[in-house]
Amino acid sequence: xxxxxxxxxxxxxxxxxxxxxxxxxxxxxxxxxxxxxxxxxxxxxxxxxxxxxxxxxxxxxxxxxxxxxxxxxxxxxxxxxxxxxxxxxxxxxxxxxxxxxxxxxxxxxxxxxxxxxxxxxxxxxxxxxxxxxxxxxxxxxxxxxxxxxxxxxxxxxxxxxxxxxxxxxxxxxxxxxxxxxxxxxxxxxxxxxxxxxxxxxxxxxxxxxxxxxxxxxxxxxxxxxxxxxxxxxxxxxxxxxxxxxxxxxxxxxxxxxxxxxxxxxxxxxxxxxxxxxxxxxxxxxxxxxxxxxxxxxxxxxxxxxxxxxxxxxxxxxxxxxxxxxxxxxxxxxxxxxxxxxxxxxxxxxxxxxxxxxxxxxxx
Length: 363
Prior knowledge:
Strand content: 5-15%
Number of strands: 8
């Protein structure tokens, strides 16, 4: 590892590794004020600010570009903070490399397009600079992994992933629902990649930042990316999800860091007992699912024989009502039970559809 990148050890060795700063660079005064307050805390590892803002609709604040970049460079000269910004095009990368930015991130809107990711990967090929890759807008873990792989093939050795939540048609209290299971799937596929949580975008409201940040640390994430503005309510972009530097430091002081490893003999013994019981329960669940799918197959055969439609609205409504009622009686989270049965129902429909199609082909 080059001396210029010795700080990369902090990404995995210092939890939580912190990326913080305003959503967008709006003025020289704003950029410097936040930088000075965060630098004084000694808690920030990378200072962020958006220079080019890929907005959902035109007409909103789209960043100050190179002018904002100069404000960041001036802030680095005065505070010593290392700089990171979002890049989406070749010329963005070119500017950042020419001005020795310390790291770059690729945003969710860019990650959905492999052509754009490849353009950025080609632009940084052979350069010793860390790249953080946000999850794509939709919950496609293969697309996320593919973006990381494009940078690996370009020779980038220092890579991180940022989980900022996903767009969803479901109603949610969050701006971008976390879908933690998607991030856990990503981590299982790429365990060597540091994982950073972006609770600012995930929640969409400053009131959610602390709880989402804590949840990510409980799941053993390596760090956080949090937006901070001297006067959040007057911010030109994402005003609702930014916090003052003072509040950011309060949030950090409230977070609890969990131990990944433990050696207490009593705890180890109890944990083994618990896990043994869980393993037995899981085995029984799998057996019951297999039995259920066998019955689904039998029902599918009869539906085909008697000309009955696969999807039965009345029956599905009955299942939803009775299973959620039972969940309530047992003190279970109804949403979890509903989600599980949605998956089971989907695969049941798929299995019966295959039965219908297979018989038609044989005929």
